[in-house]
Design a protein that fits this description.
- The complex is a heterodimer of chains A (310) and B (365).
- Chain A is mostly helical.
- Chain A has one domain: ABC transporter involved in vitamin B12 uptake, BtuC (Orthogonal Bundle), CATH 1.10.3470.
- Chain A has a two-stranded antiparallel ribbon with strand order 1-2.
- Chain B is α/β, with parallel strands linked by helices and 365 residues long.
- Chain B has two domains: 135 residues, Rossmann fold (3-Layer(aba) Sandwich), CATH 3.40.50.2300; 143 residues, 3-Layer(aba) Sandwich (Rossmann fold), CATH 3.40.50.
- In chain B, strand 6, helix 6 and strand 7 form a beta-alpha-beta unit.
- In chain B, helix 5 runs antiparallel to helix 10.
- Classes of the chains: A mainly alpha (310), B alpha/beta (365).
- Chains A and B meet through helix 1, helix 4, helix 11 and helix 12 of A and helix 1, strand 7, helix 7 and helix 8 of B.
Chain lengths: 310, 365
């Protein structure tokens, strides 16, 4: 056990944890916006897959990673709009339509992967950018300040999302719509529009989350490469009590424990590998049960809104 | 109060789970009757034909298979698909051998439905290409006595349950693992090797154990770090596992399952070498993959076709080995491996074929 507490190992956990947390951060912050406005989007995983695919494909064909990122964001926007139409305009049951969207994304990305790529191919993704001065700190510099732009972007998104939600009129409207859409409506807030915006924004961020895997962290596309990450992202929103900073701590905790369990195995610490692999999930369940503050749940979450109805 | 009970219950469940997984896995010996093909011999059952032979009908032999991953996964499923394509070419194209498949069947009920459908459509040989499909094959096979079934990786043909029309197949992946472990140990400069498998069971575990044994036999002071991700498809965690191994000093990496593409990418970026299994993964990273153990299922499938045509519908268990040519070590011409290392690898292959080397025996250090 002592071998875990050496500097290289701790720095290694920190480094892997930060990278692992990146896709969760994009997806979960996006989902936070959707849920704060009262829409549960369980289709995040499918959007991530489509984002990962389109980002990879466009980056490979054009040779431009930024175009790939744009394509992933655009795909996410389209799928977010689809979810909005189904869950906001048509008022379908949100859980079911989200699962539908997830299966759609899984199926379509697999189909496109097979027809356009034929097999697994790899590209050179975004390379690490060392931040001047901070990156030169011995040890920690490389671990914290030598990542690719999408990793930095994910962590910068947290204060930004926090500010938008809590300090802007738009954020106020989002929260109002999620708490009491009827009251918001009587005050002249366009509930439908707000929900369209948040779900589409969530879609865009989920698309970028997928691209962070396919063109920044792993640099390839493989069918079902998210293997359920989108669902973990939804759980992280509950874990973080619908607050961006809470969501970030959740994503980091989950990812650090995942990085830790890999080190436990690599160092040969006698713990069954099946149990090691379960550790992050056990922790998430525990945290959801004890730490999550349910008082924060947006009151109108999963409830469709119709004007003039009681 | 209700909430408190819920929380208490949850904790109890988790504690029980923890305790259950900590307890040493009790070794329950379940006797299983299997038949096993003897090295290098073709089992031929004599069939006495008494009827007047009708003019031979040019009818295509029809094979269908169901696979958990895609047929271009650069691993498990692609190895079988390529073998079928090779046989098809040898037999004279799609007119002689018809191939149908359902891929991405990670849900067992879906796979079972597909297996049944293919059998009902009159395919001659229906293959469930995943050890998770065994029980489904055992249930479906008796309903279609005219169809041959096959599944793997396993050696259980269900003869003990009275099922007559099921073939089983398995790769002795530890054999190639041993040889690749030998090469990796001799090539490593850091003296640390990193192995990341999917789950600690079956084919993957055999490969990993063989790799470790081969490495330690070649170099007694080599460090072999082993980790499992618990998933066949989690590319991201597989990549993180490779990062972790490199962080722990490994310069030679290996692993199995279709998720290893994530690890190969990390090896490529960080300048480590990779050893592949099931399929030659060189295409993915031309300067990273040093050598691969390639599965060639064609000999086995050809034997199944011959058996079916002779009226033997199942009951044989096959293994892929170096000796029967089902396992091949392929080097990447773009990566230089010194002659003496290749000689050591050849000696290991020879030793395994002669039976002088047990590829699962880890030398006491």
């Amino acid at each position: 056990m002592a071998e875990l507490f050496t500097l290289p190992v701790l720095l290694g956990i920190l480094y892997s944890g930060i990278r692992l947390a990146t896709p969760y951060l994009y997806a979960a912050i996006g989902e936070t916006f959707a849920q704060r406005s009262g829409v549960l989007n369980l289709g995040v995983d499918g959007i991530m897959l489509m984002g990962a695919y389109s980002g990879f494909y466009v980056a490979m064909k054009s040779g431009n990673l930024w175009l790939g990122l744009l394509a992933a964001a655009g795909t996410g926007i389209l799928m977010g709009l689809m979810m909005s139409v189904v869950s906001v305009t048509l008022q379908a049951q949100q859980g079911i339509s989200g699962i539908g969207l997830q299966l759609f994304g899984l199926g379509l990305s697999t189909l496109l992967f097979k027809t356009t790529l034929g097999g697994v191919k790899s590209i050179s993704g975004f390379s690490p950018v060392k931040i001047p001065l901070l990156g030169d700190i011995p040890g920690l510099g490389d671990v914290l300040f030598n990542h690719n732009v999408l990793v930095y972007g994910a962590f910068l998104l947290v204060p930004l999302a926090n500010w938008v939600l809590n300090r802007t009129t738009f954020g106020l409207k989002v929260r109002a719509v999620g708490q009491n859409p009827k009251a918001a409506d009587t005050l002249g807030v366009n509930v439908t529009l707000i929900r369209y915006i948040t779900v589409t924004l969530g879609g865009m961020l989920a698309g970028i989350a997928g691209a962070s895997l396919s063109i920044a962290l792993i640099n390839l596309f493989q069918e079902n490469m998210t293997s359920g990450m989108g669902f973990i992202a939804v759980a992280l929103v509950y874990f973080g009590s619908w607050r961006p900073v809470g969501v970030m701590w959740g994503a980091l905790l989950f990812s650090f424990v995942n990085a830790l369990q890999l080190w436990i195995q690599v160092l040969g610490i006698p713990l069954p590998s099946d149990l090691a692999v379960m550790m992050p999930y056990i922790l998430t369940i525990l945290a959801l049960t004890f730490a999550a503050n349910r008082a924060q749940t947006p009151a109108a979450l999963t409830k469709p809104f119709e004007r003039g109805e009681n | 109060m209700k909430k408190a009970f819920f929380k208490l219950g949850l904790v109890m469940v988790l504690v029980a789970l923890f305790a259950a997984s900590c307890a040493a896995p009790a070794a329950v010996e379940v006797p299983v009757e299997v038949t096993r093909i003897v090295e290098g011999e073709t089992i031929v059952e004599e069939i006495i034909v008494t009827a007047t032979p009708v003019p031979e009908e040019q009818k295509a032999f029809r094979i269908a298979f169901v696979a958990p991953s895609s047929v271009n996964d650069m691993a498990h499923s692609q190895a079988l698909y390529q073998a079928l394509l090779n046989i098809q070419e040898e037999m004279g194209g799609p007119d002689a051998l018809e191939i149908a498949y359902s891929e991405g069947m990670f849900k067992i009920p879906d796979a079972a439905a597909a297996i049944r459908d293919y059998a009902a459509e009159g395919y001659d040989l229906v293959i469930g290409h995943g050890s998770q499909y065994g029980t489904s094959v055992a249930q479906i096979a008796p309903d279609f006595p005219e169809t041959s079934f096959a599944w793997g990786t396993s050696l259980d043909t269900f003869q003990a349950q009275g099922v007559e029309n099921v073939f089983a197949y398995q790769a002795e992946s530890q054999q190639g693992g041993y040889v690749l472990g030998t090469i990796a140990a001799l090539m490593s400069e850091s003296g640390v090797l990193g192995v990341s498998g999917p789950v600690e069971a079956g084919d993957a575990k055999l490969y990993v154990d063989g790799f470790e044994a081969g490495a330690k036999a070649a170099k007694s002071d080599i460090v072999v770090n082993i980790s499992y991700t618990g998933s066949f498809s989690d590319v991201s965690l597989m990549a993180a596992a490779a990062e972790t191994h490199i962080g722990a000093g490994a310069d030679m990496l290996t692993g199995s399952s279709q998720s290893v593409v994530g690890a190969i990418g990390v090896a490529k970026e960080q300048g480590a070498y990779w050893f592949g299994t099931q399929w030659d993964q060189t295409e993915l990273a031309s300067e990273t993959v040093m050598a691969s153990q390639v599965y060639d299922w064609s000999g086995i499938v050809k034997d199944m076709i011959a058996a079916h045509k002779a009226g033997v519908m199942g009951g044989k268990a096959y293994t892929l080995t170096f000796k029967n040519g089902g396992l091949v070590i392929g080097y990447n011409p773009a990566v230089e491996v010194p002659a003496e290392v290749k000689d050591a690898a050849d000696a290991a292959i020879q030793g395994i074929m002669d039976g002088a080397i047990d590829p699962l025996a880890i030398p006491a250090s």
